[in-house]
Amino acid sequence: MPVVKVIEVISHSELSFDDAVKQAVAEVSKTIRNIDSVYVKDMKCHVKDGRITTYGVICKVSFRVD
Q: Where would you find the membrane-spanning parts of this chain (predicted)?
């Protein structure tokens, strides 16, 4: 039976929520193998002068432990 571990990461993007999630997975993939899924726990935007400047996400990343 495989063991699955979950870590929580924060990521942001100037483009979109989708890009922020992709950046989170890309960064985690540098040190973690066997990623199974990503759960987006929370989303927020930073606003300056009435315009969105960055999109932020908090993600839970699940991966199988060898």
A: none
